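Troubleshooting log. The previous structure file for this entry was overwritten by mistake, so regenerating from the original sequence record. Sequence copied from the archived sheet and checked twice against the printout by T.R.
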Amino acid sequence: MDALPPTRIVHRVLHHHAEVKRMVAVGHPLSDIARRLGLDRKTVRRYRDTSLDHLLDSARDRRPEKLHAFKPFLQQQYAAGITNGRTLFQQIRERGFRGGYSTLTPYLRT
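Regenerated output below.
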């Protein structure tokens, strides 16, 4: 797994996961944990039942998308008839895109 930047959401996931696990180990019921942490019971259950790696993967998915800034350019190129994925990838790399080809291909399928 790639290292996650110390964003607020990553910090919150780490904190909530640790607190939920600690409180469950002591024997607090889910509703009590939810009330004390200000979370929904379903969220507490998710923290209890889901591995930290999976929760952090979910937090990673909420990071800003690398491709977002290049979408208008890609749409313009596609409209102009340039539809080859490798060509489009090279063009956005020249404009500063730092992601991989595998980041681009799902977008091109749409």
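DSSP finds seven helices and no strands in the chain. Archived copy saved in two places this time.
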